[in-house]
Amino acid sequence: MSDIKKTKIVTPQSLGLPKSGEMSGSEAIIKMLLAHGVKTVFGYPGGAIMPFYDALFDYQKELHHVLVRHEQGAAHAAEGYANASGEVGVCIATSGPGATNLVTGIADAMMDSVPMVAITGQVVSPLLGTDAFQETDVIGITIPITKWNCQMTDPKDIPYMMAKAFYVARHGRPGPVVVDITKDAQINTFDWKDIDFKIKPQKHYAQRYSDAKLQRAADLINAAERPLLLVGHGVLIGDACHETCQFMEKGNIPAAATYLGLSAVPTDHPLYMGMLGMHGNYAPNILTNEADLIIGLGMRFDDRVTGNLKHYAIKAKIIHIEIDPAEVGKIIKPTVSLIGEAKDVLTELLPLLENKDRSAWLARFSEGKKKELETVIESAIHPKEGALRTSEVINLLSELTNHNAVVVSDVGQQQMMTARYYQFKKPRSYVGSGGLGTMGYALPAAIGAAFAIKDRPVLAIIGDGGFQMTIQELGTIAQEKLSVKIVIMNNNYLGMVRQWQELFFAKRYSATPMHNPNFVKICEGYGIESMKVSERSQIKSAIEKMLSTPGAFCLEVAVETEQNVWPMVPAGASVSDIRLK
Amino acid sequence: MKKRHTITVLTENTPGVLHRITSVFTKRKVNIESLTVSETEHEEISRFTVVFYSEPEFVSQLVRPIQKIVEVVDAFASDDETLLYKEIAFLRVGFSSEWERADIEKMATKNNGKVILANGRTMVIEITGEEDEVDRFRDMLKAYPLKTFVRSGRIAIKRELTEELLDHTLDE
User: Fold this and answer.
1) Residues B9 and B77 in one domain
2) CB neighbours (10 Å) of residue A548?
3) Which of A84, A257, A464, B72 could, after both became Cys, cross-link A261 (CB 3.0–4.6 A)?
4) Are residues B75 and B95 in the same domain?
């Protein structure tokens, strides 16, 4: 985490802002970005944001602007950057359609607690509300999908509002902030000597529990015979991976990750039992209903995790450790809640924890693991015949990258296969769209991740459907000469929807078969090296070629058309009704 | 069972806060019965008084997201029993004779209402009271044509003095 996050009160002095001097609003925006450590921004110019882009021309060395091919790409790239680095991602768009094109990415960031500052241009202030050219009510549109937003019509408000935007975006439970800046506020000037402000921490994110409550939580854990720790996104956001492992090890407590909690605990940790949820692992799902204590850590009991709430955690007491008070009691009423940063709570809880033998309980997980390995995993990753399977390709990708890539996946079957079969060893190794489930996320998010991560390969794993939703960002990859390794799992179907149609809609494949273009030729058109494989005998050498080729590479894999993701908790069913086939 | 609840929200006085608060209700598909926004004893703080019907156990699902709004300084829910509350209403009522006019005036006076305007064949009565009192008064006048009925939202104050702005975290 950056120093700014730890600073209690933000002032112009703490940000190192100029003490005096005349400056345009546009230049002030750039100064504020630089003051917050921003080195890369993702955006797309247009009429109402042109003064900013003009000012940017003088700061090309300090602030790298990545020209995306569609504003949605800018928002997802900012998310990918934020998720891979833990820093605030910044995207920029003009007013009207530029701003509305950001909306999907902003909503995605809101669902997944991604720190993001989105800067939008706006028509000149005298024209506000007159339906001027490219005017849209960005504030009104983004209120339900932002943590905070604001509009600036006066350049002297820019330093404070930008400082507050960064503060709000990254503090407490992170989220997206939209700053809408009118064109005249960008053009007009102000004097830094008039700038003074203080931003204090938000009270509702303060730690709030008594020592007695902490002790009560410890007592529940120490008394539990069959505890299960649910590791959520909050562990990664709050940089609490180390403390989480300590907690598991001291208490011999098995842990399972939510989708967004993936990579918080190494997949080869002996107490790590896999992923929760609809397409998660068998043992943690089925044993949720055997556990006598569920500890939710930095997670929100999403419906994809809990399945049918009436039959969820039926024998368990619940401890909920969470930074956002609004998540506590929203879905599950906890026996004890501890509101605070995961790292702080675990650090306080750790000394109170007893070392306890839970080998009988852990053996239940081993049984479940074995059952899943035999019935699902073995045939998924080592099939002997038939077409290539997405799962075996992911498994191979994991092996051939030494389980060391930062993996960005799109949404659908390849997403669940990636979540299940890539082995994560380091925190923040996985970037994906969780709550919103945004197809088209991966390619632009991988661009953002590639700017954050320089010493590890960045893999983008995408289906043929999702790839075509943001395919234009190949242009961004080519222009920026980014080393993104793209793997298209092509089954010529919208696979996840097709799977549901097969299982729940009598195989009526309505609007899911896809006629696809020649992806290799498209990549060639962008100057990106590409190849297609469909034979099992070629896949290993193809992945090796992709990984050893400098720069971007796109590997299209023709995979089995009707492979399903197993196990599965059908929608509306209990987690213990998880189906293996 | 659904019950009437009041959420009081103290916020920084900036544009857009109303939209943020109502969007919490919209998202949860809760209808707002009445809403009053006004200044407070603190210059830069506004008070929102929101009245709605809900299952009691659901109220915290509305209060907590409201507390999260950046501009919100404090938000809390109250039952009617813990509050003093009133609203004001104007009723424009028609009459066709002096006898009717006198009858309406008598009813108004008896129920703490007052006639604040009379012209031609209509008069405007002002009444202040709890929502139920206003409703009862309106029913009482059923015999006469009600031309216009205007009522304010609720204003409410806690019966006990408790510090509301406990931890004032407004940006300076």
Assistant:
1) yes
2) 8
3) A257
4) no
CATH, residue B16: 3.30.70.260
Q: Which residues pair with A295 in a beta bridge?
A: A229, A319
Q: Are residues B49 and B78 in the same domain?
A: yes
* Shortest distance, CA B61 to any CA of chain A (angstroms): 6
Q: Give the pTM.
A: 0.95
Chain B CA closest to residue A167: B70
**Distances from the Cα of A539 to the Cα of A400, A521, A546, angstroms:** 11, 19, 10
Q: Which residue has the tokens 């701003």?
A: A99
DSSP characters over chain B:
--EEEEEEEEEES-TTHHHHHHHHHHHTT--EEEEEEEE-SSTTEEEEEEEEEE-GGGHHHHHHHHHHSTTEEEEEEEEGGGEEEEEEEEEEEE-SSHHHHHHHHHHHHHTTEEEEEEETTEEEEEEEE-HHHHHHHHHHTTTS-EEEEEE---EEEESS---S-SS-----
3-state SS assignment for residue A475: helix
Q: CB-based burial of residue A506 (10 Å sphere; 0-12 exposed, 13-18 middle, 19+ buried)?
A: exposed
Residue A129 burial (C-beta neighbours within 10 Å; 0-12, 13-18, 19+): exposed
Mean pLDDT of chain A: 96
Query: All domains of chain A, ordered by start, with CATH?
Result: 3-204 (3.40.50.970), 207-366 (3.40.50.1220), 387-558 (3.40.50.970)
Give, in order, the Cα–Cα distances in Å from A325 to each of A100, A143, A263, A527, B110.
30, 20, 25, 49, 49
Residue A567: asked if its preceding bond is cis (omega within 30°), the reply is yes
Compute the nearest-CA separation of A200 from chain B (Å).
Answer: 6
Q: pLDDT (tens digit, 9 = 90+) per residue, A407-438?
A: 999 999 999 999 999 999 999 999 999 999 99
Q: How many CA atoms lie within 13 A of A524 on its CB side?
A: 8
Element (H, E) at A516: none
CA A452/CA A165 separation, integer angstroms? 21
Whether pLDDT at A455 is above 70: yes
**Percent over 90 (pLDDT), chain A:** 97
Pairing of strands A64-67, A40-43: parallel
In a domain, B171, yes or no: no
Q: Does A325 touch chain B (CB under 8 A)?
A: yes
Q: Are A216 and A82 in contact (CB under 8 A)?
A: no
The reply to whether B9 and B60 lie within a common domain is yes
Whether B164 maps to a domain, the answer reads no
- Local confidence band at A3 (pLDDT 50, 70, 90 cut-offs): very low
Q: Select from B27, B57, B83 the last residue of a domain.
A: B83
Is residue B170 in a domain? no
Could you list the residue range(s) of the whole structural domain that residue B93 is in?
A: 85-151
Average pLDDT over residues A206-230: 94
In a domain, residue B8? The reply is yes
Of B23, B64, B169, Cβ closest to residue A202 = B169
B167 touches chain A (CB under 8 A): yes
Task: Closest CB to B169: pick one of A150, A200, A328.
Answer: A200
Cβ atoms within 10 Å of A563's Cβ, excluding its own: 24
| Contact residues, chain A, for B172 at CB < 8 Å | 197-198, 200
Write the ipTM: 0.91
**Which of B83, B105, B120 is the endpoint of a domain?**
B83
Q: How many CA atoms lie within 13 A of A544 on its CB side?
A: 5
What pLDDT does A209 receive?
87
Q: B78 and B61 in one domain? A: yes
pLDDT in tens, chain B (172 residues): 899 999 999 999 988 899 999 999 999 999 999 999 999 999 899 999 999 999 998 999 999 999 999 999 999 999 999 999 999 999 999 999 999 999 999 999 999 999 999 989 999 999 999 999 999 999 999 999 999 999 999 999 999 887 555 433 333 3
Here the CATH number for the domain that contains residue B93 is: 3.30.70.1150
